[in-house]
Amino acid sequence: MKVYFADPYSPWQRGTNENTNGLIRQYFPKGTDFATISDYQIKKVQNLLNTRPRKALGWKTPIEAMNELLR
Fold first, then answer.
1. How far is it, in rounded angstroms, from Cα 58 to Cα 21?
2. How far is 37 from 27, CA to CA, in rounded Å?
3. Which of 70, 50, 71, 69 is nearest to 61 (CA)?
4. What burial letters (b/e) apply to 40-71, b meaning 16+ CB within 10 Å?
């Protein structure tokens, strides 16, 4: 499998990653001390993001897209 790495300080080369970071920041603002965040809170946000449809996935959720790959 080929692996590609984005150049340092080039967020436009990591579109999906940067989009996901932005979605996470809606729940945990920059500078959040994760030592104060419970596992439950993290799992809750994880579930919200994994059940949110994404344009990059043809409006499927990440869970739906992964399930298709595993079939």
1. 20
2. 11
3. 50
4. eeeeebeeebeeeebeeeeeeebeebeeeeee
Q: Which residues pair with residue 54 across a beta bridge?
A: 60
Angstrom distance (rounded) from CA 66 to CA 57: 10
Residue 66, CA atoms < 13 Å, CB-side half-sphere = 6
- pLDDT bin (cut points 50, 70, 90) of residue 13 is confident
**Which tokens belong to 36?**
């104060």
What is the average pLDDT across 32-61? 95
Q: Is the pTM of this model over 0.85?
A: no
61 within 8 A of 54, measured Cβ to Cβ: yes
